[in-house]
Amino acid sequence: MVASCCRFLCYFCRISRQNQKAMFDHLSYLLENSSVGLASPAMRGSTPLDVAASSVMDNNSLALALEEPDLEKVVTYLAGCGLQSCVMLLAKGYPDIGWNPIEGERYLSFLRFAVFSNGESVEENSNTVVKLLIRRPECFGPALRGEGGNGLLAAMLEAIKISEDPALDLPCTANGEPSGSGEDEEEEVAHTGNAIMSFYSALIDLLGRCAPEMHVSDNTFYSLYFIIKPLFIDDSLIEIQS
Hints:
With 242 residues, this protein is mostly helical. It has one domain (66-241). The protein contains 14 helices and 2 strands, in the order H-H-H-H-H-H-H-H-E-E-H-H-H-H-H-H. Strands 1-2 form a two-stranded antiparallel ribbon. Helix 1 packs parallel to helix 4 (48-54) and helix 6 runs antiparallel to helix 8 (101-115). The protein is globular and about 50 Å long.
């Protein structure tokens, strides 16, 4: 029922800007319940967080109406994903990897709509998001969390390794055998390796959209520069593309 209602509300927002505004007025409630369904691949596009994103999507005026407490709430949830595994997935037999890239990627996607609208950067929101991310380094995932992280390339290689091993990538039965690899169950299965790669891809995409023009000499540019610079040491992007 939740998925059906959220799917309808997403369509409702797309019909007109008046509908978007009507739903935007309930943004706080949607964000407070944003964790509902995030860990279920079958509910992707049909969760309260998706409705919240639809209420600001491609609408510059509503994106500008986002307040710092709203963005801070999302960043707080994102930070939580970097500190512990998803309880629901653990209950289904997924391995405990110590963090929650599946739900984290969804919060990153919401922030992308907040900082980038109609092909243009929403500078006010970008500045706020950068400031909030700097305060919560756990938002960057374990591989990029300060000096203890192994870097982006190592994270991607580990994700590929996980995706190639069903025992690490999929939930296990009581007998320790991987489950959920059948075609009928594929829609309900979350793949851990793919989730990790999707998280870091969404993170880099978000940081790129937050970046101001290079000729702009302000604190935001330099703050973002010092965040992104360590991510790409040793030609890691070239290695990842390979």
